[in-house]
Amino acid sequence: MNLNRQAKILRVLQDQHFIRISGSKALSADCGIIAATNEKLQELITKGLLREDLYDRLSVITLEIPPLRERRADILLLAEHFLAEFKRRYGRKIDSISPEVLSLLLTHSWSGNICELINFMERAVYFARESASSSR
Fold first, then answer.
1. Which of 2, 32, 74, 88 fits a 20 to 30 Å CA distance from 99?
2. What are phi and psi of 118, to 5 degrees?
3. Distance between CA atoms of 58 and 10, rounded to whole angstroms?
């Protein structure tokens, strides 16, 4: 996000007011922002790409979550969650994740992190054969 937009967001967060595009009346905004990135924010500040005052405003609560490839125990829990979600969305009858797929999930590097896992599970559910016991 360019510095001009960063300044506008900072102004709304500090003043809790903004003017709509093509508007003339100040509107009230009581809001917060949840932001996520895989960038090193201190480096962006040093390079002049991130306003330090905006960083200070946004970093009230900071959670650093390791990449998915460093949280192998979470992969199966997340995969099961997304399996249930996509089964419901597509009306598919799939009993469980096969042992072969479980092995693949645990050995993959997940460079795309959770987004890659979500996409993988959606494709898997969409293209999977339904369980023999479920399809009549």
1. 88
2. -60, -50
3. 9
Q: Would you call 18 helix, strand, or coil by DSSP?
A: strand
| pTM score, whole prediction | 0.64
Tokens, residue 89: 């969305």
pLDDT-derived band at 132 (thresholds 50, 70, 90) equals: low
Share of the chain above pLDDT 90, in %: 71
In this structure, the number of other CB atoms found within 10 A of the CB of residue 50 comes to 20
Q: Which residues pair with 27 in a beta bridge?
A: 18
**What are the domain boundaries of the chain?**
3-58, 68-127
* Architecture category of domain 68-127 in CATH: Orthogonal Bundle (1.10)
Closest CA relative to residue 64, chosen from 39, 43, 81: 39
Look up residue 3 and give its DSSP letter. H
What pLDDT is recorded for position 121?
96
